[in-house]
């Protein structure tokens, strides 16, 4: 073997010296103050020797009040995972706290014009808002315009409401082509018509070149709650079934690839679509059987299931083999080392249903093209509460935790 | 980090930069094949992709041998289970 | 997916598990180390331990290139990124690795231009598109990744790109394995060899493990059945009193490795006299640096790299975890001060790190969970 191959193989090295070689005197090391501080913050915990004890202590640590430890906002704070939840809990919820906000659903359910505090006789409305910063603005299957309409329509639908009115706020960058804006607005108009909502108010701001990325859109929406009962992540019970309305991850993968930075091509298009009709059919078919509806946007299906596990203190058991994923999405995920369970959808919902109504719910979803690939992907158990467990296709068991960090680009 | 994914060579890109278009379950990317100089690559060959480079050509005979062995283990197990199910020791 | 799905079959796994159980001598405990972080990831991601008898335990090794980067090197990289005309590129895994003053993510939030790339070659594209910037690729990885970095440098040289360089942190696997074998507090029965490193270096460099150290090694693929089969082969060797290097991953790993890949590494890089490993300390001849011939592509020569050394936090036991002496949960700060969202140790950062894999995928009591998932 030549000297060259030897150097990689390392035969010649005396690698066993795991200490400082004598011919070098590296500088005395400094200490990472932030790390020492983090350790000190958790001091006092005795060194536990059994796995069970350690797991119990971790659960306790996870239930502690959230605190934003970073000095600055990082991209993780917008990724929909753990950092986003921490930010919302510690900063927004703490400052704005009220019972409606505390429910932490996709939209707020409020009653207006009731005779008394209970709201009896009043009109029940769902109210929500969402901002859209997707890059690129145009991608296979959609653009920021229909995303901005469908996303807010879906948030209202997930509250069980019939969407009625939307607002549209635009933040535009100096130099942004008017033709592009026209294209975006046209697709918003089309999406609004398709969803049966009207855009009734709006706002426009222009910022200097470089201060935003072309075009950002904010939409808020109001819908009317015509059905009794409340959908909530906290009402799920052991035995309930988990259903997704179709193949997951299409939108996230499409947008990631559309950015062009990965130089990857695939025949996949965004699943952006309004889900209110699908939801109406489902609620008509099983008026008492639906516990919760969520659209699986940022953070994907995994994040929703974690929210359910924590809010209802149940164990969520998912069967990997029954989760519908397109082959190209699986391929892209393998290539990029990501898990489709965390990849965003813009036209897929997750619902938790009473097991007695699961078949009817599935049939209702499958009767529409948007729900034809709907599938039961798992069920709820009572123990261990707060955890999402995956029965892998391989036959093993693992946890599906909240998304941590986010190496993924802006996708909605 | 040591993530390596099998992909199928779809096309050798003749642009002097040692690139081949590779498909992973329908997902396509140009991959550098400069590290496989000794191998004669052709469309239909499978390679192992790591950070945009082909590290190794997949030996289909060896893959089949591995699968045959695994299949044998599975079959023997099934036979045994069946034998157990049909056996009568009463 | 071909060459993937076939090696994830649950029915075959059940059959193989029975054979594995049959090979175990009653009362004997077996400890095998999977050297590579990719294996650790596969084991947890597929829940592979469900198939192993309680007497067989898998010990997670040091083969996670992100996990072994010392804090000081992160600080050095950030110091380079802080030059006003620098664009730093790196793999996604590196972004959250904490240095003494925070991570790449923190640095980016504070104003530096650090970008994730899929391939080192993508950095060249960025360099071509930004001729007025210096593009520095934070190169990390074992022999699996070093050839790709070397090829990228050769390509840059060929194109005469004068605004591209690498900050070389490539490490080599054999010295790390030697350090493990020299660790007095660990008793291992065998090794699951790092399959993708072996596509480059081949299987011969492991001879000393069987010949001198008396431990069997099976070079393994990355699908769960590959790993189960490798455990089976290790147990069979022990039962038959053999001690050999075997290649379970022969569909991908040629016995002699990839000579071309070794050649390009040798062309561009040479061994460093010593390199600091996170938790393991200084190991001589355990890392690569850019050869003088390619000095114009060596960020350590172009920039004034401070050469920061940051001691591992006293409470952090990454070293013991990397050596397999401690299980992740046995570390004092595991899951409390050190979590994936606020990692102290590198093992908690990469999805291939033993601590992160355990925290994200395996943080449950098998006894309690059995009832929930298998009924």
Give a summary of the structure in a few sentences.
The complex is a heterotrimer of chains A (412), B (90) and C (375). Chain B is of the alpha+beta class and 90 residues long.
Architecture overview:
The complex is a heterotrimer of chains A (412), B (90) and C (375). Chain A is 32% helix and 22% strand. Chain A is α+β, with helices and mostly antiparallel strands and 412 residues long. Among the domains of chain A are: 107-224, 60s Ribosomal Protein L30, Chain: A (2-Layer Sandwich); 233-399, PurM-like C-terminal domain (Phosphoribosyl-aminoimidazole Synthetase, Chain A, domain 2), CATH 3.90.650. In chain A, helix 6 (144-158) packs parallel to helix 7, helix 6 runs parallel beside helix 9 and helix 9 runs antiparallel to helix 12 (358-366). Chain A is globular and about 60 Å long. Chain B is of the alpha+beta class. Chain B has a five-stranded antiparallel beta sheet with strand order 3-2-1-4-5, with no helix packed on it. The longest helix of chain B is centred in the last third of the chain and has 27 residues, at 60-86. Chain C is of the alpha/beta class and 375 residues long. In chain C, the strands form four sheets. Chain C has a five-stranded parallel beta sheet. Chain C has a four-stranded parallel beta sheet with strand order 4-3-5-6, sandwiched between helices. Chain C has a two-stranded antiparallel sheet with strand order 10-13. The chains are: A alpha+beta (412), B alpha+beta (90), C alpha/beta (375). Chains A and B meet through strand 10 and helix 11 of A and strand 3 of B. Strand 1 (30-31) of chain A pairs parallel with strand 14 of chain C.
């Amino acid at each position: 073997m030549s000297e060259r191959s030897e150097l990689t193989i390392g035969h010649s090295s005396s690698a066993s010296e795991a200490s400082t070689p004598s011919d070098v005197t590296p500088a005395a090391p400094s200490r990472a103050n932030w790390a020492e501080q983090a350790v000190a913050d958790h001091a006092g915990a005795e060194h536990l020797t059994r796995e069970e004890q350690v797991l119990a202590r971790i659960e306790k640590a996870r239930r502690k009040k959230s605190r934003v430890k970073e000095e600055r906002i990082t991209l993780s704070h917008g990724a929909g995972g753990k950092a986003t939840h921490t930010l919302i809990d510690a900063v927004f919820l703490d400052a704005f706290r009220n019972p409606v906000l505390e429910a932490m659903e996709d939209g707020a359910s409020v009653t207006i014009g009731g005779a008394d505090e209970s709201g009896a006789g009043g009109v029940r409305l769902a109210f929500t808002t969402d901002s859209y910063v997707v890059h690129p603005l145009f991608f296979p299957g959609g653009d920021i315009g229909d995303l901005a309409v469908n996303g807010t329509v879906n948030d209202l639908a997930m509250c069980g409401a019939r969407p009625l009115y939307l607002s549209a706020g635009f933040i535009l960058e100096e130099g942004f082509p008017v033709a592009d804006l026209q294209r975006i607005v046209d697709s918003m108009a089309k999406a609004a018509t398709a969803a049966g909502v009207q855009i009734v108010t709006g706002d426009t701001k222009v910022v200097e070149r470089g201060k935003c990325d072309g075009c950002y859109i904010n939409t808020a929406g109001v819908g009317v709650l015509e059905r009794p009962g409340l959908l909530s992540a906290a009402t799920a019970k052991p035995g309930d079934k988990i259903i997704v309305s179709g193949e997951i991850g299409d939108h996230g993968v499409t947008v990631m690839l559309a950015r062009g930075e990965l130089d990857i091509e695939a025949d996949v298009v965004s699943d952006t679509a309004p889900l209110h009709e699908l939801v109406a059919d489902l609620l008509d078919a099983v008026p008492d059987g639906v516990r919760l509806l969520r659209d699986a946007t940022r953070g994907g299906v995994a994040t929703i299931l974690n929210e359910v596990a924590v809010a209802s203190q149940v164990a969520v058991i998912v069967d990997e083999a029954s989760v519908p994923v397109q082959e190209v999405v699986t391929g892209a995920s393998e290539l990029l080392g990501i898990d489709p369970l965390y990849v965003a959808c813009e036209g897929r919902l997750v619902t938790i249903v009473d097991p007695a109504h699961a078949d009817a719910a599935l049939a209702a979803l499958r009767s529409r093209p948007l729900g034809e690939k709907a599938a039961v992907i798992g069920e709820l158990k009572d123990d261990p509460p707060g955890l999402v467990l995956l029965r892998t296709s391989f036959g093993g068991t693992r946890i599906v935790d909240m998304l941590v960090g986010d190496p993924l680009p802006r996708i909605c | 980090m040591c993530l390596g994914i099998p992909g199928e060579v779809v096309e050798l890109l003749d642009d002097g930069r040692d690139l081949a278009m590779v498909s992973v379950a329908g997902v396509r990317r140009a991959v550098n094949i400069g590290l496989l100089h000794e191998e004669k690559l052709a469309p239909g060959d499978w390679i192992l992709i790591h950070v945009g480079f082909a590290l190794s050509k997949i030996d289909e005979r060896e893959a089949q041998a591995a699968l045959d062995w695994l299949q044998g283990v599975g079959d023997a197990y099934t036979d045994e289970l069946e034998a157990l199910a049909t056996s009568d020791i009463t | 997916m071909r060459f993937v799905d076939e090696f994830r079959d649950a029915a075959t796994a059940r059959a193989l598990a029975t054979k594995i159980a049959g090979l175990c001598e009653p009362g004997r405990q077996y400890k095998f180390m999977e050297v590579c972080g990719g294996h650790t990831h596969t084991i947890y991601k597929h829940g592979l331990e469900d198939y192993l008898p309680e007497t067989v335990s898998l010990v997670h090794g040091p083969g996670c290139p992100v996990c072994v980067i010392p804090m000081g090197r992160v600080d050095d990289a950030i110091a380079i990124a802080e030059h006003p005309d620098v664009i730093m590129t790196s793999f996604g895994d590196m972004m959250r690795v904490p240095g003494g003053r925070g991570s790449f993510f923190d640095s980016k939030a504070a104003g530096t231009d650090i970008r994730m790339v899929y391939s080192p070659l993508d950095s060249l594209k960025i360099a071509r598109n930004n001729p007025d910037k210096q593009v520095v690729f934070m190169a990390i990885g074992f022999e699996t990744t070093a050839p790709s970095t070397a090829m990228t440098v050769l390509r840059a040289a060929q194109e005469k790109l004068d605004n591209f360089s690498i900050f070389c942190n490539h490490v080599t696997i054999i010295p790390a394995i030697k350090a493990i074998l020299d660790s007095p507090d660990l008793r291992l029965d065998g090794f699951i060899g790092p399959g993708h490193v072996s596509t480059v270096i081949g299987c011969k460099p492991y001879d000393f493990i069987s010949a001198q150290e008396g431990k069997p090694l099976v070079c393994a693929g990355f699908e769960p059945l590959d790993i189960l089969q490798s455990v089976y082969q290790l147990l069979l060797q022990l039962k038959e009193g053999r001690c050999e290097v075997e290649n379970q991953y022969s569909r991908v790993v040629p016995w002699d490795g990839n000579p071309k890949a070794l050649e390009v590494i040798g062309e561009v890089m040479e061994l460093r006299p010593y390199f600091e490993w996170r938790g393991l300390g200084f190991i001589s001849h355990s890392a690569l640096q850019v050869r003088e011939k390619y000095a114009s592509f060596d960020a350590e020569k172009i920039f004034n790299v401070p050469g920061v050394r940051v001691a591992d936090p006293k409470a952090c036991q990454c070293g013991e975890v990397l050596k397999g002496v401690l299980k992740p949960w046995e570390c004092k700060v595991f899951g409390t001060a050190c979590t994936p969202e606020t990692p102290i140790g590198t093992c908690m950062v990469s999805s291939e790190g033993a601590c992160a894999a355990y925290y994200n995928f395996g943080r449950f009591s098998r006894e309690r969970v059995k009832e929930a998932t298998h009924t």
